[in-house]
Design goal:
Shape: elongated
CATH superfamily of the largest domain: Response regulator
Largest sheet: 6 strands, mixed
Mean pLDDT: 91
Radius of gyration: 20 Å
Number of helices: 8
Number of strands: 10
C-alpha cells in the first residue's frame, strides 16, 4: 500500500517500483496522480477514483478506451444521484441541504452537481459552505433556518468534521439525514446510500486477474463501477415520519 500524500508516499512508491512487481494496484485519486506520473511500464490497475480524467492516467471521458498504455481501472463517482433518487422516493419532494468545504475538491465537485441533480428528482436544493468547525455549525444552522427538511452528508473528507453534529441532530429528530459517507457511523441517518467497497474490491481483483493473465491494460477501457449499499433505518423512519417503509425504497 502506497501512502497517498507527502514525502513518505513518494519514498514508499520509489521502493515499490524498485522491486519491479508484475502489477501495482492503485487506490484513490491522489495515489493515482502520483503513480501514473512516475510509472510508465509496470501495469497499473486503479480503483476508488471518482474522476480519473485529470490524473494523467486518462484523458477524455468520452473515450474511456484511450488512456495511459500501462494503466487501466475502475471509476466510481460519488453516489449523489442514487442518494437523491432513493431519498426522493422514500421521503417525497422537499428541500434538501448540503454543507460543503470550498477548499475540498471532492466536496466542491459534489456541490456543483447537487442543484441540478436535486431538481431532477423534484427536490429543492439549498447550499451553504464552510471551511472550519465554527463555520460548520453556523452553516448547518443556516440550512435549517432556510427550510431544509433533509441534509445530505456527502462522501467528502471534510464532511467528517461536521458529521457527528449532523448525525446527532438526526437522532434527535431535528432534521432528516441522508448519509453517503462510508467512514462515519450510520446512527442518526434515516437513509444510507454509499459505495459498496466490498463489491468494488471484488471488481478490482477481477480486473487485476485479467491483467496478470496477460491481457494488456492498453486494450481494457476504463469502466465505471459504482456498486451501492442502501440501508434504511426503519425504526428512525417510523419514529420521525410515522409510517413504515411499504416498499418505497425497494421499488416494490
Amino acid at each position: 500500500m502506497v501512502p497517498e500524500f507527502g514525502t513518505e508516499g513518494q519514498e514508499a512508491l520509489r521502493r515499490l517500483r524498485s522491486r519491479r512487481p508484475p502489477l501495482i494496484i492503485v487506490l484513490g485519486t491522489p495515489a493515482l496522480i502520483r503513480t501514473a506520473a512516475a510509472e510508465k511500464s509496470i501495469p497499473l490497475v486503479f480503483a476508488s477514483v471518482a474522476n480519473p480524467y485529470f490524473t494523467g492516467a486518462a484523458y477524455d471521458p468520452q473515450h474511456p478506451e484511450i488512456h495511459q498504455s500501462n494503466a487501466t481501472g475502475l471509476t466510481s463517482p460519488p453516489p449523489l444521484a442514487a442518494a437523491l433518487e432513493h431519498g426522493a422516493r422514500l421521503l417525497g419532494p422537499c428541500p434538501w441541504g448540503l454543507l460543503y468545504d470550498p477548499l475540498d475538491g471532492e466536496a466542491l465537485e459534489i456541490a456543483a452537481q447537487f442543484p441540478g441533480e436535486a431538481r431532477r428528482f423534484g427536490l429543492t436544493p439549498l447550499l451553504e459552505q464552510s471551511s472550519d468547525p465554527v463555520g460548520d455549525h453556523r452553516g448547518l444552522a443556516k440550512l435549517l433556518h432556510r427550510g431544509a427538511k433533509v441534509i445530505y452528508l456527502p462522501p467528502a473528507k471534510t464532511a467528517e468534521r461536521y458529521a457527528p453534529q449532523l448525525l446527532a441532530w438526526g437522532r434527535e429528530g431535528k432534521v432528516l439525514v441522508v448519509n453517503s459517507h462510508p467512514e462515519v457511523p450510520h446512527q442518526g441517518a434515516i437513509l444510507y446510500v454509499a459505495l459498496d467497497y466490498e463489491k468494488l474490491g471484488q471488481e478490482t481483483a477481477a480486473l487485476a486477474r485479467r491483467v496478470r493473465q496477460g491481457e494488456s491494460p492498453a486494450r481494457i477501457p476504463i469502466t465505471e463501477k459504482s456498486p451501492l449499499k442502501v440501508e434504511v433505518d426503519e425504526t428512525l423512519l417510523a419514529r420521525l415520519i410515522g409510517y413504515p417503509l411499504t416498499g418505497r425504497i425497494r421499488g416494490e
